[in-house]
Amino acid sequence: MGMEFKDELAGIKSVQNLVKPDDSRSYPLYRIDIAGNYYMDAFYERGGAVSSYDLAAFLTDQLSRGYYHEGGISLEGTGCSSFTCQTNQGDRIFARNYDMDVESPLAVVFTSPDDGRYRSISVVNLEYLGFNEKGISSFNDKLVSLAGVYLPMDGMNEKGLAISIHMSYQGPGEETIATDMDTGKFDVTSTSMVRLILDNASSVEEAVDIAKNIDLHDDIGNSFHYIVADVSGQTAVLQWVKGKDSQDTDGSKRQLEVIYQDDENAYISSKNYRILTNFITLDGYNDTEIMAGKDRFNILEENLSKRDGLLKDENQAMNILSKVAANREGVSDYVYTLYSAVYNLSDKTLDLVVNENYDDSEMTFHFDLAE
């Protein structure tokens, strides 16, 4: 079975415009509620997807019942910064900036699977589905937007498990070599793996088990790594590598390496928080001068280390994210921070600020997964 027609109609009807296309403060923002199976049975049956174009073909076929096919989904180069920490009250926090060189419409996607998988909330960049500053305007647009369920950039599920995806810029010089495994395991693209973990993992260990049992296929010219955290305070950084950066030229030969909460290396100064930007954080990997996002990493380290990862509340976490936004002093690699997200893994809530409007209450949105 795929997504029943009644679930598609409910998803289309749910599309809510939170920031209008004519608002000069930000590109459009939407909320979409998706229930049912959302084609996951069919996705498993076909063995997953080996590329973004393969994923797009699957999704358009499912959405149109085979009547039309469109082009692929291409993930543009992104920046992004994430960190985990704890509040004075003991709440677990997962915070993330999403940076790009182009402005894009966004969607906050709520899922309610009907087959035992976990409910979740995630943020989707609709530009990857072909949307521009005009946003979602027609019935067909709303139908296509449902495919965003397979394109989460970050998210949290009902068990308090959160994950975000980051570019890792692997390979010597300016060239980035995509991870493209072929070991006979289940095939996933970089974002569909995020969906698998949100749907099926209740803990960091379960997320790592999923990552160990997939073949990852990144877009050509891109490579990605991930940070996962759960409500117990455990974290894991998931990175696929082969040797040192200067030798990491064959994406099919990479293997998963996991850095856990209790691990120590040159990039970890405390077990009370974890940071990820856009360079590989394994000891001994970086033997070249290019370490994307190291400036943002250092700013986050400075702000978290002096508090040993203990913050007052979500507002303070958002304030720290603002210090590594694209238009802040000391940060120079991207033009826009499309959004800043602070997930409270204990309360199952999300605070979202769009387009660096940190001081504008109308551009700050609060979502509750339990609602």
Helix content estimate: 10-25%
Estimated radius of gyration: 19 Å
Indicate the mean pLDDT: 90
Number of helices: 8
CATH structural class: Alpha Beta
Low-confidence stretches: none
What structural class do you assign from the helix and strand content? alpha+beta
| CATH hierarchy: architecture | 4-Layer Sandwich
Instruction: Estimate nothing, just give the exact number of structural domains.
Output: 1
**End-to-end C-alpha gap:** 28 Å
Shape: globular
* Pattern of helices and strands: HEEHHEEEEHEEEHHEEEEEHEHEEE
What is the CATH fold-level name? Answer: Penicillin V Acylase, Chain A
Report the major sheet: 9 strands, mixed
Binned strand content: 25-35%
Number of strands: 18
Q: Which properties best describe this structure?
A:
371 residues, alpha+beta, Penicillin V Acylase, Chain A
